[in-house]
Amino acid sequence: MEQDLGLRNNTVANDKIDEIRLALNSETGNQIIWVLVEGEDDRKIYPKFLDETRASVEFVTGGKGQLTIALNALAKETKQVIGIQDADFLHIDKNYPAVTNLFYTDYHDIEMTMLSFDEVRCNCFTEYRMQANQNDIWKNVLQEASYIAYIRWYSEKNNCKILLDTEII
What we know:
Layout: H1 7-24, E1 33-37, H2 40-45, E2 55-59, H3 64-75, E3 81-85, H4 90-93, E4 102-104, H5 110-115, H6 118-127, H7 134-157
Parallel strand pairs: 1-2, 1-3, 3-4
């Protein structure tokens, strides 16, 4: 994994590192596990699965590179920090960066990991009143998403820098 060593990008990780260092020196902060994540959506999702009195989920602005920088620095100082990163295409390539205490999602990202469970999908379809057609819809979603995924994977592998707006409006 290529790391950006520029001042601007590293100050983002350094800010989070300093924030956690200060918290670790407090009465409350030294009693919890710090969970670093790469995305704002991850920051919203992961706390739902953790006891907030024992873990704090922190978003490291700047994506994977900044998460890795922050995790590497803090892991040298404490065992109270872990990172969770979207696997993206790592499972396909089987090329996992060696980063202490870094865990990857089972699938491409946490959202796809959650949708891999029938109960979660069923709840989503029920919420939008689409449960009658859920099998057909899910099959179609996976088929259509695979085209975009292949383009993103090819772009990443070949450094094509193809940008796809994947935000759903």
